[in-house]
Design a protein that fits this description.
With 171 residues, the chain is an alpha+beta fold. The chain has seven helices and five strands; from the N terminus they run H-E-H-E-H-E-H-E-E-H-H-H.
Length: 171
């Protein structure tokens, strides 16, 4: 790899570190190509990616970026898993590590916060952006669906509801 290629790799890694919601660093010693492709596919499904890069170039790219202290994790055969969603990459890595003992999570970074392996596990337990949005939509939509259900109910149901309300107020 010549100097220009190295500069290009450093720039690409710098963009990854600056724009990703979470970056997970893991050791992948002994993994087969098929296992790595399976990890890449799972990460792609959630909008993330996996990148293997020389540790020295990754450390250069980290200089001055959020989570630059993550450079201490970059020793040996390491892989970077990252996603824009602050939880997605951590969830995929955590799930994959449970099924493949050759994939060992070392830590990572979430913005300026450097995470150890336990921190990545804690992040993976958080709800994803889509899950949070779905729960908010469900909360907003619930009162409307209750009113719509009451309006659409047969007259006998409405009469029953009114009788029950009247009995509660009388008591």
């Amino acid at each position: 790899m010549d100097r220009a290629e190295k500069g290009k790799v450093v720039d690409e890694l710098g963009q990854i570190f600056a724009s990703s919601g979470v970056v997970v660093v893991a050791r992948y010693t002994g993994m087969t190509v098929a296992q790595m492709q399976a990890l890449r596919a799972k990460m792609r499904d959630v909008g993330g990616a996996v990148r293997v890069a020389k540790n020295k170039l990754a450390k250069i790219a980290l200089d001055g970026k959020p989570g630059s202290e993550m450079g201490n994790l970059l020793m040996g055969m390491t892989v970077l898993a990252y996603s824009e969603d602050p939880v997605a990459a951590a969830k995929v890595c955590e799930d994959y590590a449970k099924t493949n003992d050759k994939f060992v999570i070392l830590g990572g970074a979430m913005g300026d916060t450097v995470l150890d392996a336990a921190g990545v596990t804690a992040v993976s337990a958080m709800p994803s952006r889509e899950e949070v949005i779905a729960s908010i939509v469900a909360c907003i939509g619930a009162p409307g669906s209750n009113i719509a259900g009451a309006i659409g109910a047969p007259a006998s149901n409405i009469a029953g509801i009114l009788t029950t309300i009247e009995e509660r107020h009388a008591a």
